[in-house]
Amino acid sequence: MNQLKKLLKRWKRPLWSLATLLLFIGALVIGVRHMDATREKTDASETQMNAVAETFAPLHEANAIHKDALTEQVMKRLSDRNTHYIVVHRMQYICGQTDDILGSRPSSEIVRSLLDHPDWIASFDEHNRVVLEQKIDDLSETCKRNAFIGVDRDGKLTLYEGTPEKEKVIRTFFQLDVESVESALPPQVIKQLKDGIRITDIDEYNSVLSTFSDYAVEDTKKVMKPTTLP
Hints:
Residues 1-22, 51-66 and 221-230 have low confidence and may be disordered. The strands form 2 sheets. This protein has a 5-stranded antiparallel β-sheet with strand order 8-5-6-7-9. Helix 1 crosses helix 6 (202-213). 52% of the residues lie in helices and 26% in strands. By secondary structure, the protein is of the alpha+beta class. The protein is elongated.
């Protein structure tokens, strides 16, 4: 019996060490699996954002050319530093816009604002006011309360103010391959698309665009036409 006790004492420490090692390995495996799951989720999110960015790329390029031409024209008219103009700061969202009238400003101050914000677009409106337009990659608060993405009568994916049946178009995206959509997606999704998919934030907006860009007719996938509401 004494010899047995001695053997148990001798083996007790290695057994505890082995148990500790096994617990450590188990925790390490769980941690690695968690990291892999997190990485997969992040990769999926990046893939979705890249798909949306690819769809919007031609529109951004066209806007850049348009912006440079407009701003150059305004800068020429502002060469007389003693002239004053009413200035409007326009925040142009992906959906919706807000105007903040800043009042009369000298040309020199307007030029300084443009130099400080090279991403702004400058133009003159019909009232000879200088409009400084800032692009914001988000939905306006008004749009968040009443924006829907649906399909129009011609099968084009469209952003609406209100449900599609009201036909208040904000922006037209691309032509859908309707047959592919109807054959690939469940009936409830098709019905939701026709009734209008409610959009409350930029993540939902990007998600819907990314999903349906897989069913876009290639010739129109990268052509998105904004529409100004009356």
